[in-house]
Amino acid sequence: MNLNSKVLVLPNICGIHLDLTGQLTPTVGPSLQPFYNTVVENATPVPAYFSPSKAVISESGAETRSGMVYDQKLQLQFPSADPLKVMRLEAYLKVKFIYITLSTGMVLFFGRNDYFQNTEPKKSVSITKELTQITYTVKSMFSLGFTNGSFDFELPEDFPVNFYNL
């Protein structure tokens, strides 16, 4: 890897999918970032409504005796006047994994805290008369990685199907 080469893309969040059932394993084959990326099987991701300009993902790391520990946070907002707000909120709170689709075609995987995920994201809710905000937080042993569904990940480029969207 050449650390001197520029990163020429500044992605935007353009899609969120929530998953309640997936099973995950780290990648072992050739991929963008073996071990750090995740392969999800038996998943049933559901598209989630959110205000795109209000979706925020952040990550910070701190050195510990065991190595770096990353605090990852995802905030989603939608209008509180939603007639299905309570049902929508209950679904958002049952989440196990979150797929964050970027405008670059990559899919960030939110929710893997170690080699095998052993704890779900922590959730908090803040509601005003205008907005409902859901915040997910995870403490992880490594930075956010990508998952199947990202371009050039676990599939050859000439393969015509994207399994993430099936």
Brief account:
Helices cover 5% and strands 40% of the residues. The two termini are 33 Å apart.
Walkthrough of the structure:
It is a single chain. The chain has 166 residues and is mostly beta strands. Helices cover 5% and strands 40% of the residues. The chain is built from 1 helix and 11 strands; from the N terminus they run ββββββαβββββ. The protein has one helix spanning 85-93, and strands at 13-19, 23-26, 38-41, 46-47, 56-64, 67-79, 97-102, 107-110, 122-127, 131-140, 145-146. The strands form 3 sheets. Strands 4-1-7-8-11 form a 5-stranded antiparallel beta sheet, with no helix packed on it. It has a 4-stranded antiparallel beta sheet with strand order 5-6-10-9, with helices on one face. Strands 2-3 form a two-stranded antiparallel sheet. It is globular. 25% of the residues are buried.
For the biggest β-sheet, the strand order reads 4-1-7-8-11
Number of helices: 1
Helix content: under 10%
Please give the number of β-strands: 11
What class, by secondary structure content? mainly beta
Mean pLDDT metric? 78
Unreliable segments (pLDDT under 50, ≥5 consecutive)? 150-166
Radius of gyration: 16 Å
**What's the assembly state of these chains?**
single chain
Distance between the termini: 33 Å
Main β-sheet description = 5 strands, antiparallel
Order of helices and strands: EEEEEEHEEEEE
Strand content: 35-45%
Shape: globular
